[in-house]
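Cross-posting from the chemistry board since nobody answered there.

I work mostly on the small-molecule side, so proteins are not my area. We synthesized pyridoxal-5'-phosphate and want a rough idea of how it might sit in this target. Sequence and SMILES are below. Is it possible to get a predicted 3D structure of the two together?
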Amino acid sequence: MDIDVASNLKKVLAELPKGTRLVAVSKFHPNEYIEAAYQAGQRIFGESHEQELVKKYAQLPKDIQWHFIGHLQTNKVKYIAPFISMIESVDSMKLMKEINKQAAKSDRVINVLLELHIAEEEAKTGLTLDACRELLSNGEWRTLTHVHISGLMMMASNVDDQEQIAREMTTAADFFEEVKKQYFSDDDTFCERSWGMSHDYRIAIKCRSTLVRVGTAIFGPRVY
Ligand SMILES: *Cc1c(COP(=O)(O)O)cnc(C)c1O
């Protein structure tokens, strides 16, 4: 290994305030990198490809909490439902229903985050604020007894303008308060705000993030 994962991990962790947890994004990195972070105490890892995740799950310690953070096709849910700790990238009722169905088969309740589309870029996935409001006001989600909505996730625009990033994250944080008040005021486990990556997690911390998803700053650049 030509990268000091443990020391990179420590540096990132030292910057996180109480109440903000780290998702170490290990996609495209080999098991030995994950093991190095695990040895240093990290337990939450993020992956974005179902096949890669299933393989790593089989080979790595079972007390790892895996977060799925990529685009998830409904026909792939069944492969990760037996073990996934959180699916952060839920952006449709169709996907949520499939997660519910597959979680029921494993007798589990799967925690999910609703992914918001706030960034100005076209390509980003996720629900617009209005689409998210509509999904929640529809109420069908309440019937999904094997899915628990734990909070919101978003990716800010990939720009250098720190103020734009902060604006987008603040929009997400304010929207969290709106949704919390309207639908989850009596549910303490609706509490997660997942934003911040390697280039903007310091901004995310200031914008009320509870989960930062950091890959490159810990594991180095990905080799695709
Ligand atoms: C890859 C990825 C990250 C981590 O990105 P880095 O820039 O390597 O920190 C975070 N969130 C999502 C959704 C990702 O796909």
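Reply from a structural biologist on the board:
Welcome over. Reading the output above for you: The domain at 5-219 is CATH 3.20.20.10 (TIM Barrel). The pocket of pyridoxal-5'-phosphate is lined by residues 25, 27, 48, 69-70, 155, 197-198, 213-217 (CB under 6 Å). Happy to explain the token format if needed.
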